[in-house]
Amino acid sequence: MIGFGAQGRAHALNLRDSGIEVIVGLYPDSKSRVRAGRSGLEVLGTAEAARGADIIFLALPDTKMPAVYEEQVAPHLRPGQTLLFAHGFAIYYRTIVPRKDVDVVMVAPKGLGAMVRREFIRGRGAPGLIAIHQNPSRQAKRTALAWAKGIGCTRAGVLETTFREETETDLFGEQAVLCGGTTGIIRAGFETLVRAGYPAELAYFECLHELKFIVDLIHEAGIAGMRRLISDTAKWGELTVGPKIIDQTVQKNMKSALRDIRSGKFAHDFIQEMKTGRARYVNLLREAEDHPIEKVGARLRRLMRWKAKTKST
Fold this sequence. Notes:
The protein is α/β, with parallel strands linked by helices. The chain is 60% helix and 10% strand. It is globular and about 65 Å long. The mean pLDDT is 95.
């Protein structure tokens, strides 16, 4: 387990609880060393862990993975080992090009690390994807399925895909719907109400706070199931006004975003930004964090004392 962030920690603890021997590879000054040790896991240096492992999971951010791989993993690879990824970015966009005599697989839980761990503890699991990029051993699919079983994904269901499909759909989902699309429409709704003279607190509750309740319904029962549980007024508004908000212009913009992903433009621009000082990235983050909805939300959430009791496992 090279890295011990949210996803790495979830995989490591779930595998350990499934009876698999897990070693965590971290650089000497990593703050995660203490956390991994407290979890009862053996911790070694990155190179030493890579040298001794049968399966090496690169549980690192896409921006940091190539350098760690090149300097501390690649020199110690041997024929018959397996490189495992939870996302296809590094392989698909060739920021990492593995030697040909190792298996290269992906096991991608469809959930954040905390959810992967929480669902496992509850006796359930997060659904997942598997993909095979290199298979010199002819055992790569068995390895991927075994890993998926060890972290609990097979309890919910596993789909076989490719590194390309996973990467492109994951990036598109993040940009157009899950992160970019959702936060964009939340801010637009908030700004529309505030500019029309409504209290910012009311706008926050209507456009951000209540979103969780609707998403939870969709997650449990699908869009049609959610629709059956909301009022007739809400249903009529969704069916008649919703298509005017999310119209063909939005879908046209989504198609453009997908083209940039499939052509490699998004990956190229992202990699260049990370390599050249990240100035635009930092400025965009700062602007987003300075939005009025963040100040209103922080103040309101402090009043919701029950939220302080909610902690991830």
